[in-house]
Amino acid sequence: xxxxxxxxxxxxxxxxxxxxxxxxxxxxxxxxxxxxxxxxxxxxxxxxxxxxxxxxxxxxxxxxxxxxxxxxxxxxxxxxxxxxxxxxxxxxxxxxxxxxxxxxxxxxxxxxxxxxxxxxxxxxxxxxxxxxxxxxxxxxxxxxxxxxxxxxxxxxxxxxxxxxxxxxxxxxxxxxxxxxxxxxxxxxxxxxxxxxxxxxxxxxxxxxxxxxxxxxxxxxxxxxxxxxxxxxxxxxxxxxxxxxxxxxxxxxxxxxxxxxxxxxxxxxxxxxxxxxxxx
Length: 279
Prior knowledge:
Blueprint (H helix, E strand, L loop, with lengths): L2 E2 L7 E2 L46 H8 L8 E3 L12 E8 L3 E6 L17 H9 L4 E4 L11 E5 L10 E8 L5 H16 L6 E4 L6 H14 L3 H10 L11 H9 L10 H7 L3
Parallel strand pairs: 5-9, 6-8, 6-9
Antiparallel strand pairs: 1-2, 3-4, 4-5, 7-8
Helix pairs in contact: 4-5, 4-6, 5-6
């Protein structure tokens, strides 16, 4: 089945070919330059098989693209106060990064109408439950503060079983750091697993507000898989801080975005890129 995606995200969606072919793949790049193509067979070891009982034709990527019809990487599904999409209550400032595969945002603690707490916290339990119900495979908290208080996995009854998803959901909650090389690779491993197994479910990468650290992880992913230049990725990061970062601030994040060299071992097909990357 082929269909046109919403304006701003890639071309044709199809029964996705996920072989390691002709995909944008990392070699060294210079700021503002187009990346060279590199082919590397040493991809992370990922089982592409769907979960037991799941139709082999089921695509979480297609389902979430249709369920969250965002026009581009800047449009929000959930706003700054956690409203806009009730099924994802507990999150904030949710945006698509790789459409249907990776989403970014914050944790709704400061504005949570069911119980406020300090903004410097991981997802509230309701937010993690709702991500599970919506079919997310994993959530990644980009800070360490109070992560020890959060559940590391949640099981749930799915909201989307009638759309072909499994009746039971499961989400893993991990703490990773987009400011280290090891952390970036671990984040990419999670995201890549959802590309290689389209039935797996998307990844939600978040910080406190959905502005700075989640923007860093998103900018690096867009450089890795969608060919964003250093300048374009930094501009994307700046725009989606919602005015909370002036030019002289966050020099470490800006420097990391500019100096990033796409990693080998994460090839995707041209069809996948056209489907999930912004145009």
